[in-house]
Amino acid sequence: MVGRLAADSIERRSGVSLWRQIADKILQAIAIGDFTENAALPPEVALAERYGVNRHTVRSAIAALVQEGVLRAEQGRGTFVLSRKRLSYPIGARTRFSTGLQGQTSERHIVLLASSIEPASQRVAEGLGLARGAEVIRLETRGEADGRPVSRAAGWFDARRFAGIDAAMAETGSITASLARFGIDDYLRQSTVLSARHADAADLADLDLQPGAIVLVTVAVNVTPDGQPIQFSESRFPAERVELKLSAL
Amino acid sequence: MVGRLAADSIERRSGVSLWRQIADKILQAIAIGDFTENAALPPEVALAERYGVNRHTVRSAIAALVQEGVLRAEQGRGTFVLSRKRLSYPIGARTRFSTGLQGQTSERHIVLLASSIEPASQRVAEGLGLARGAEVIRLETRGEADGRPVSRAAGWFDARRFAGIDAAMAETGSITASLARFGIDDYLRQSTVLSARHADAADLADLDLQPGAIVLVTVAVNVTPDGQPIQFSESRFPAERVELKLSAL
DNA sequence: TAAATTTGTCTATTGATATAGACAACTATA
DNA sequence: TATAGTTGTCTATATCAATAGACAAATTTA
Known about the structure:
Two copies of one chain form a homodimer.
Chain A: H1 18-32, H2 44-51, H3 55-67, E1 71-74, E2 78-81, E3 87-91, H4 97-100, E4 108-119, H5 122-128, E5 135-145, E6 148-158, H6 165-172, H7 175-180, E7 188-198, H8 201-207, E8 214-223, E9 229-238, E10 242-246
Helix pairs in contact in A: 1-3, 2-3
Chain B binds a DNA duplex through helix 3.
């Protein structure tokens, strides 16, 4: 089934280099739990044989993962798994950043990277039920768990209703707490649309990824319990570090 | 924003070739609605300039998408968009294949590709609440909409409780209808875990993809209204043709 | 009809990717 | 202390990916 390391399947002249494909497979095997932390990877020659490629090609894949901080290679001994399994990020009616990751990480927080006021684009206006061009506040945030970026999000709010939410966010470091200042005690996830793509230059910088990585993208609308839209957001998650757990369905 | 064609961001020596990255971006722009059906793409020289690559590199990307049936190039005239937007596949408490795609496609159905009886693997046993190694029935299916594959799934059922569900599935072409024969009138999605990866050889064949494509993967458990697990499943969706809409949370 | 625009084809060159083989350096173990 | 097993480095070669330039072929527009 999905991505056991035993899998055959390497595609030539696909536009994705063999070393990147093999790196992907190793990452997947780790995420799935085929290798626990500190476990030794099979030796390079064995991997090369398994995938039907040259040993040097396997070495390129391993070099990329060492660079990425996932593996550690020791001459004469072997190559070992450093990283933990993927975080399981919950998405449901009451998705909240920090509560969802409890138990999986010792530390997590949201950093406000930037904020601005801008006219609403077509899709933001639709999501928030505003006229196109109406003023909205945009908050750019990054979610971090144990010091590693696990999400990068842009959130839009009606500028008239939520004037000053940028300052509140900077102060509290929490969307939930910031909304509470505007009398929003509870909010629900109304809709979420999910897609995946290759990371672009912005993703690489924002999420500290290596080129060629895959990102999961969610576009969501949060509403008050009576259905009034309050937040439109687009979030990006590194597929190699995060899986999305759809809960409370 | 996500993948406006205006975006800069092409990564060199990433292990993903420039032509594949550009093909991805064009696909995304189409999916997002930047190009409607039959619309003309910008000329090759303009695309080359926009992405900062040679015209021949853009041509490689276009050639791949022509091969894929997404674009049509006409000498002297231009390059045109053939394919429709991505399907929006709903996932929620009551996810059903054919009801969910109503209105988006004129035709849709599930094909039973294979079935077998096998001992439950660790994760299947966990999902179904069975002992590891207990007999389970595996159904391999493909979802098609307007003749194009939009999903590829494996579903596992307790072999004792659902003996003969493979025949029922072959006959009815519907999981819901097959379960009804065993007295299951209603079932709910208990959990869904979502990830993304590069397509492997099996995905390419199963979903009729070109090498280098991305697949979304869901692993889910369906339960009866009183919480009894009845189905464990793993589904793969071509990210270029399908987005997942998380609904009714 | 002429000019401008656009895709198609060809040649040539450079750099990244992948293969092949040999051997050094380091570690663990018989 | 050999020996086997493993990662690290080097050279060489072939193929793919990307750049560069020129011109042909088809279509649209002035």
